[in-house]
Amino acid sequence: MSDLFPALHADADRPALRFGDRSLTYGELAGAAGSLAVRIGGASRVALWATPTLETAVGAVAALLAGVPVVPLNPKTGERESGHIVADSAPAAVLAGPADELPGALGGLERVDVPVHVPVAGARGPLPRDMEPLSPALIVYTSGTTGPPKGAVLPRRAIATTLDALADAWQWTGDDVLVHGLPLFHVHGLILGVLGPLRRGGQVRHLGRFSVEGVTRELADGGTMLFGVPTMYHRLAEALPGDRGLTKALAGARLLVSGSAALPVHDHERIAAATGRPVVERYGMTETLMNTSVRADAEPLPGSVGVPLRGVELRLVEEDGSPVTAYDGETIGEIQVRGDHLFTEYLNRPDATAQAFDGDWFRTGDMAVRAADSSIRIVGRKATDLIKSGGYKIGAGEIENALLEHEGVREAAVTGEPDADLGERVVAWVVPADPGSPPSAEALASHVAAQLAPHKRPRTVRFLDALPRNDMGKIMKRALRPPGRAGA
Ligand code: MCA
Ligand code: AMP
Fold first, then answer.
1. Distance CA 326, CA 334 (A)
2. In this structure, are residues 264 and 378 in contact, taking their beta carbons and an 8 Å threshold?
3. Which residue owns the Cα nearest ligand 1 atom 9?
4. Labelling 423: which of 13, 22, 275, 386 has CA 20 to 30 A away?
5. Are 64 and 70 contacting, i.e. CB atoms less than 8 angstroms apart?
6. Taking every pair of C-alpha atoms in the chain, what is the biggest distance, in angstroms?
7. Residue of the CA atom closest to atom 2 of ligand 1
8. How far is the C-alpha of 362 from the C-alpha of 385, rounded, in Å?
């Protein structure tokens, strides 16, 4: 039995996974993942074509059972970015659903089809064995301010630690039925949203893709918890007036959890007023997994990400490196954390790994204040070149580099602007190569979507004669303001 999934062989008939009309019990999951684990056992590393399907969940569990580090891939990732991830992580094979079509960037890799239904008898998979707590379990790629995404190496210990700390904060048990429509190539959807319920022996119902109707249907049909990014809760808040089915479904849930970006207080208030249910926020990062949460048994705290989770040491640090000692809700410092929930390194990037730590404290780059009750309120980010859009982290630099490769672009700068739906929207400021016939905004968006990923595409493109630069020639992004807010 795996150290990560103690419930896997406990009750074969218990429901484990449901994606639309396809589902697996724990017995069926143990059979499917166990047989795949035998097949891939001994591989150095595998990639996982992370569609929102049963196959992705089975593939991830199989890799974890086999002790083979797994690299989830966004199926919508464009050529340049997939090429980078495959070259950097060098997987021995890619796990995919039998019907999936894989792009050229994965062409050279051995393909292993993920089985979903295998005869259960005799297919229990590898014998139980202890695995090193610090051995890599997942490698999740995450954007930085410049350059291509880095692979955060997440050890088995971090996954177990974070999921058990969340169980403590949320009284999360095997009786919970988790509903969500998050993508499965990031921490939120895959680790919290799939491995989380499986570690508890509970059920996950994945919507395939997020929709208000899907949330209503699944919560009304026995779902007890909902996970989402703020954009999803914003869309629920917008739909609530006049939607009695949704109101009733949310009101009946045990716990509504938001994370990956800040949920505006206005959306907190609208949901609580209409349903009587507060939304609980938790704060995490690919590198750290979860750091803080509002506890399910505490008073609601809109605008706060709650208190450090069990086992998480958290400090706020001033610009000069000295720790903030005040618990005054006012003094701002950078959040730094340490504990067993952290990643071990960025793959192949010892330089970046060293820079990310101050001793054994990980520098999150998030700026916050801390109240007398130790609760944390995030007030901003150190790096202005990181954009959070729809809960996805996007580096301005990678989009600028992609734009500069377009023949119609001479110069480019990328910023984030407030957006009611996405939190922030990617804005490209472009000096066209030929001012007489600039490329269309759609062409530039499609170029970025095809090279990087659709969620990184600029939603707004503004053309300029020149970018504002200082005496050193550095682009002054603060001078790039929406029209009408030039002096703001
Ligand atoms: C549009 N599309 C295009 C183009 N324009 N495709 C190619 N080229 C174009 N030019 C397609 C998109 O691919 C998509 O396809 C569809 O049009 C709509 O795209 P979009 O507008 O981006 O989608 P959306 O509906 O606005 O998405 C909102 C969303 C999404 C559902 C909230 O942003 C989302 O799933 N966010 C979750 C992010 C997340 O999980 N973050 C966790 C990381 P199609 O229709 O086929 O889909 S953070 C984390 O893990 C840490 C640890 C944490 O704390 O949680
Ligand atoms: P990622 O690297 O995609 O894992 O994103 C991590 C970042 O998301 C953190 O550094 C925060 O800036 C942000 N984040 C996650 N959860 C929250 C939250 N509840 N409130 C505000 N920001 C959050």
1. 13
2. no
3. 446
4. 275
5. yes
6. 73
7. 454
8. 19
| Separation of CA 280 and ligand 2 centre (Å) | 14
222: left (phi over 0), alpha (psi -120 to 50) or beta: left
DSSP letter assigned to residue 473? S
Residue with the smallest CA separation from ligand 2 atom 10 is 285
Q: Please report the domains of the chain, with CATH numbers, ordered by start residue.
A: 15-193 (3.40.50.12780), 194-340+361-381 (3.40.50.12780), 386-479 (3.30.300.30)
pTM above 0.85, yes or no: yes
Buried b (16+ CB within 10 A) or exposed e, 179-212: bbbbbbbbbbbbbbbbbbbbbbbbbbbbbeebeb
Q: What is the pLDDT of residue 488?
A: 40
Question: Which atom belonging to ligand 1 lies closest to the Cα atom of 261?
Answer: 54
Q: Which of 373, 361, 375, 400 is nearest to 480 (CA)?
A: 400
**Nearest ligand to the C-alpha of residue 459?**
1
Q: What is the pLDDT of residues 340-384, one digit of tens each?
A: 999 999 999 999 999 999 999 999 999 999 999 999 999 999 998
Query: Atom 8 (ligand 2): residue with closest C-alpha?
Result: 260
**Tell me, what's the pLDDT at 1?**
39
Residue 147 has pLDDT above 80, yes or no: yes
Distance of CA 385 from the midpoint of ligand 2 (Å): 14
The number of angstroms, rounded, from the C-alpha of 170 to the middle of its chain's C-alpha atoms is 19
Is 17 strand, coil or helix? strand
Selection from 301, 370, 375, 373 nearest residue 330 by Cα? 370
Q: Could you report the per-residue pLDDT of 283-301, keeping only the tens digit for each?
A: 999 999 999 999 999 999 9
DSSP-assigned states of every residue in 331-375 = --EEEEEESTTS--EETT-HHHHHHHEETTEEEEEEEEEE-TTS-
Quote the mean pLDDT of the chain. Answer: 95
Torsion of CA 432, 438, 439, 445, to 10 degrees: 60
- Ligand 2 center from residue 399 Cα (angstroms): 20
How far, in Å, CA of 188 to CA of 391, rounded? 10
Using the Cα atoms of residue 374, residue 377, residue 382 and residue 387 in order, give the sign of their dihedral.
positive
**Ligand 1 proximal residues by C-beta, below 6 Å:** 76, 182-183, 186-189, 210, 229, 231-232, 259-260, 284-286, 390-392, 445-446, 449, 454-455, 457
